[in-house]
Design a protein that fits this description.
This protein has a five-stranded parallel sheet, with helices on both faces. The chain is globular, with a radius of gyration of 23 Å. Strand 3, helix 7 (165-176) and strand 4 form a beta-alpha-beta unit. It has 382 residues and is α/β, with parallel strands linked by helices. It has helices at 10-21, 39-51, 64-70, 100-109, 115-122, 133-144, 165-176, 196-199, 212-222, 227-237, 241-247, 254-271, 278-289, 293-314, 332-335, 344-359, 364-378, and strands spanning 28-32, 78-81, 153-158, 182-188, 203-206. Helix 9 (212-222) packs across helix 10 (227-237) and helix 10 packs across helix 11 (241-247). Helices cover 51% and strands 7% of the residues.
Length: 382
């Protein structure tokens, strides 16, 4: 992958290339950035630059046979670790290597893809993906072998915050005593979820969300959109190029989320003083509880943003409002007056508590029903 294919983040590209040229290559780096900011493609491009002895923004001019291997993400000195789950084919102790074909398919589809996209390929259902100690043992095994090209070996750990405690402790020992000419690149959207001792052993690089102009230019050039449409989508994407691509396709998960949200808040409005309407909220909770846990968490995160957008609109911060609901007869400006300084903190707390309990395998039906009943009270709070 060429650095020129990566959108924005010029200061990080310059830092990484210069560190190689000066021979100052940290053995462990932590790329921290939101979804769609380019952390994964940057890590792959950096690995190619390092392993293939390339130069410049085009990331070429070095070992051409080495560069060809990167076209299919199949260089023998490039290793990936990522969250996995048990499946019909892998019934116990799943490891990243067990899903290498699916992983390469994921990368070929879109290197800006997020965790939810990867889990859709794995068809996680009601499971939650994680990086287990078996993966950490695989790291030890892979790095104990000599490098194929005789140079560096690169280990990219994607969504490193999904490591369980056993895997984290095992990785910590490896980071404390790294093998020669080995580079670790850990990638996360939630730096605080990594144990402090791992974070302290990594050089941290922070990625910002992409500027609207950068996304708009990419949509015009690569997706052949007109400038007005590209600018509108870039604003809605909020720095997330993966989201921008979904907004121009039919694969936009926000659409069912929006429909679920509208059904939910409408039922919550009706439920005040109307015991019969409580049944609608219970039915809604049962339906959402049938979805996988990763879908439930992503939906509740979407609800947080919907309430935030409504609050901004209520306080006339219209320049910061980018959501444009498509559900019939639902207008954000009509909903906004019900989200205010008196209830937003409680709403946020209840939503975050629900995400927390779902992550810890709580009964989703009970969690969502409890959240729904609380919403009927909070949404009418003046």
């Amino acid at each position: 992958m060429q650095f020129s294919q990566i959108l924005g983040q010029e200061h990080i590209k310059n830092h990484l290339t210069q560190s190689v040229q000066l021979g100052r290559i940290p053995h462990a780096q932590l790329f921290v950035g939101p979804e769609g900011s380019g952390t994964l493609p940057m890590a792959i491009a950096y690995a190619q630059y390092l392993l293939c002895s390339n130069n410049g923004v085009e990331n070429s001019g070095g070992n051409e046979s080495c560069n060809l291997k990167f076209l299919h993400f199949a260089h023998p000195d490039l290793h990936f670790i990522y969250p996995t789950v048990t499946t019909e084919e892998v019934k116990s102790k799943p490891k990243s290597i067990d899903f290498i074909q699916e992983w390469r398919e994921f990368l070929n589809l879109n290197t800006y893809g997020g965790l939810f996209d990867w889990f859709k390929i794995l068809d996680v259902k009601n499971k939650q993906g994680e990086i287990r100690v078996d993966d950490a043992q695989e790291i030890v095994r892979s790095l104990s072998l000599k490098s194929y090209e005789g140079g560096y070996k690169v280990m990219i750990i994607w969504m490193a915050d999904k490591m369980n405690i056993e895997a984290s402790n095992k990785l910590l020992k490896i980071l404390e005593e790294p093998t020669d000419r080995t580079v670790f690149i850990l990638i996360t959207e939630k730096e605080e979820d990594l144990i402090q001792t791992i974070r302290s052993r990594c050089q941290v690089l922070d990625f910002n969300g992409l500027p609207e102009q950068v996304i708009a230019e990419a949509l015009v050039k690569q997706e052949k959109l007109d400038q007005n449409t590209a600018s509108k989508i870039a604003r809605q994407a909020q720095g997330n190029y993966n989201k921008a691509l979904k907004l121009i396709s039919e694969d936009n998960e926000d659409l069912p989320f929006e429909q679920w949200f509208v059904i939910w808040v409408r039922a919550a409005f009706k439920a005040k003083g109307n015991a019969a309407a409580i049944h609608e909220l219970i039915e809604w909770s049962e339906e959402i509880a049938k979805m996988g846990r990763e879908t439930q968490k992503k939906f509740l995160t979407y609800c947080l943003e919907m309430f935030r957008q409504a609050l901004l609109l209520n306080y006339q911060a219209t320049s910061l409002v980018y959501l444009e609901p498509k559900v019939e007869k639902f207008k954000l400006e009509n909903f906004a007056p019900f989200v205010n300084g008196n209830n937003i903190i409680d709403i946020y707390k209840e939503l975050n508590d629900a995400i927390y309990h779902i992550e810890r395998n709580g009964n989703a039906k009970i969690i969502l029903t409890d959240l729904s009943i609380k919403l009927t009270r909070l949404i009418h709070k003046k």
